[in-house]
User: What shape does this take?
Amino acid sequence: MNNIQLLQQPVAPSTCNKPIELYIFIDPLCEKALSLQTTMRKLQVEYGHYFTCRYVLSTELSALNSMTSRMKGCVSGAELDITHPALPSIAIKAAELQGKRAGFRYLNKVQEVATLNTRNINSHATLIEIAQQVNLDMDEFVSDFGSKEAARAFQCDLYLTREMEVEEIPSIVFFNECIEDEGLKVSGSYNYEVYEHILAELLGEELIRQPVPALDELFDRFSTLTTAEVAEIYSINEQLAERELKKRMLQQKVERIMTDEITLWRAKERTTY
Assistant: This one.
């Protein structure tokens, strides 16, 4: 593949026992990022015991500094809502300040709302509502959303994108646990088997695939799934995947969210009495 390059390790490797670290460069609202998400979810389900992920937001946006100052009045209690294409990225970085898992939950929900296209994802009010839906600490999130730290974290992502000379979005850079070794940059997106092969090459051993969880457990892990994602993860065709999803819809286990462009499935909230 012509779009694979070697890079120097930018930071110290992770201290956890997973030997591979993936830097995933995405524009979170880009259609290509949503396509890569399907591949990454399958990779996490089958081989997540080998690697950790760091998402790097790589949308080039102007006027970020002025945007931060304009936000201060909004987050301090004013009712005026503002919109700007920088806001989703800043909000994602604000969510990450509550931890990696919180950041992942928030990123996934932002992408879900953007996919459904039923609300303005560039709206400050929408992004606050998303934080509530994924159960973030709201006082902390509102404070961080308007802080220099969140804007600076986004600027650091843009700097890292330039430093690693990432010119195509999405891209993934693979690093192993040896800091002296170069990273492997894969520009663009490829079939699942390509990433599987790269993991095996970096580890220097045959991969051991984890058993795929039951569908109900999969919805505990991912808030929403498309029919295509279910088909990909279970290596079945979309007709069979849809049939299984409809069974669970009849059992009141999942619900279907439909627009003219896409269908999403999510676990149905259990009613308690």
